[in-house]
Automatic annotation (TrEMBL):
Domain Rhamnogalacturonan lyase: 1-142
Protein name: Rhamnogalacturonan lyase domain-containing protein
PANTHER family named among the record's database cross-references: RHAMNOGALACTURONAN ENDOLYASE, RHAMNOGALACTURONATE LYASE FAMILY PROTEIN
Naturally occurring in which organism (per UniProt): Dipteronia sinensis
CDD domains with a match to the protein in the record: RGL4_C
InterPro entries: Galactose-bd-like_sf (IPR008979), Polysacch_Lyase_4 (IPR051850), RG-lyase_III (IPR029411)
Amino acid sequence: MYPNEDLVYTIGVNDYSKDWLFAHVVRKIDSNMYQGTTWQIKFQLGKVDKSGTYKLRAAIASATLAELQIRVNDPHANRPLFTTGLVGRDNAIARHGIHGLYRLYHVNIPGTRLIEGENTIFLKQPRCTSPFHGFMYDYIRLEGPLEGLCSS
């Protein structure tokens, strides 16, 4: 699906039904060589609560010998904000669609990692020894801080 570059999805511009692929897989670069991929979700924030904690919820419908690394606004950060580590052996991407094991991850994003204006969440799948290594996403949601949203 993305032979030359990774998926870039911009909130408010792209249409998830046309522009988002449910399976985050590797890229074939040679007859028997594959490359990990980093997808981007771009979004605008008008105001950032620097003292608050934002919550990224990533629901995975399937994983096959993959790793999800999440970075925010710095694709080359030495350490990801979050990593699943190596997960999954259900092979739903290749052929066993009903065998996917559901996983739900809650990632805390400090407000200090976000900026007013354009932000980017980087979803990296670096494991790449087979064309079937990857994830099938169910949903991804970013929530703002709860502090200050409710009054008594």
